[in-house]
Amino acid sequence: MFTQLADFVTFDVLSLTAGSRLGESVHFFIEDVTKIFTLLIVIIYAIGFFRAMLSPERVRKIVGGRSRFISYPLAVGLGAVTPFCSCSSVPLFIGFLEAGIPLGVTMAFLIASPMINEVAVVILAAAVGWKVALLYVAAGLVVGIVGGLLIEVLKLERWVEDYVWKIRMGETVLQKVNTTLKDRLAYAQAQVKEIVGRIWVYVLIGIGVGAVLHGYVPQSFFVEYASADNLFAVPMAVIMGVPLYSNATGVIPIVEALMAKGVPLGTVLALMMSVAAISLPEMIILRKVLKVPLIATFTAILFFSFVAVGYLFNALLT
């Protein structure tokens, strides 16, 4: 449906030539804008309706009091299906710690939450297929668990801001659960307005970048500089992702264009994870509760984890 609409607008209405650089770029842009924003609205509304029953407070209670073998998989699993916005990072972090949840489990949740969410997974699957989407989810879950375990093993609690440990149970203000049908419908509508309103610029920028890559950058460029044979391609992809403030959804059009040009899957996934999980704004927000050494350690763990994921998938799938 979206391809046919893009065909009509690009080649019939705008009279651009099929196969030309401009024609291919415009076609990519129109198809992805209509497809991604339609999926965004539908999926966010549907998921928001069901997520209205799952507040951060309930997530905290579900994870708390569990053994390590259960708490880590549970934390990253809940992080994957509860992508609370960056503004929730601080109250979630404090709430987890004051409930007695270990720092490693808390960080595992905070790693998985921005990196994996059901909206991005569905859109990623629509763009490049379910195989890639499921591989991304699996890699993200593993990174969340490994990152949290490393932070626990290193015993980095001393680098949490002192005031966090002094906060009493229940002092953090978290959203209430919506139970009635009217409340859940209103919450779903508000989620669409809030999330789309917050990310639409980044999605358009991502689609624009993807369109330029698709139409104007020759495949030979990526074969030379971003192939699996280039050992520096994966680390550079992770480094490039840090300042590219977006979320997992906004970077999908770039992922789509890069994969179409032959960039290896591991390199693309490493870029996507970097953009979603170690963006500068997220680190600035976490600075309110974490001291600089812990933020640096957290970033280093994720950096090397993403590089390892990139190398692994390139080796297995090339």
UniProtKB/TrEMBL annotation:
This is Permease. It is found in: Cell membrane. The lineage of its organism: Bacteria, Pseudomonadati, Pseudomonadota, Alphaproteobacteria, Rhodospirillales. Belongs to the UPF0718 family. InterPro entries: DUF318, UPF0718_permease. Signal peptide: none annotated. Pfam families: ArsP_1 (PF03773). The chain crosses the membrane at residues 36-54, 74-97, 103-126, 133-151, 199-217, 229-246, 258-280, 292-313. It comes from Magnetovibrio blakemorei.
